[in-house]
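Let's practice the habit of predicting before peeking. Look at the sequence and jot down your guess about where helices and strands might fall. Then scroll down.
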Amino acid sequence: MATRQEFDARDIRQYYVYERYLARLAVEKDANLAQLRSVEETRRNELEDAMKERRIVERLKERLTDAFLEEVTKEEQKTTDETATNHAALARARARGRAAESGLTPE
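Done guessing? Here is the structure:
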């Protein structure tokens, strides 16, 4: 013999109320997710822009540093060349002075 289940109308109403509550909650959560996704996209775009600007600044710093180092290298080369020229001129002058003292003419 099969047993027959009876449903209480109050219980059925409570289930429907709870189901409607869950449906509203799901709609609210979906709306919250959509809003958060919008915020996420905005912030991601801001981050991408900031990263692009950072890369630009880093490239400019590198260029400035390279230009500075190139200028320093040129100045060092000038100083080295000038020192070598002065040293060679001094050696020639000393050689002439020694030659004059000994009575010889330098070549």
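How did you do? Helices lie at 9-102.
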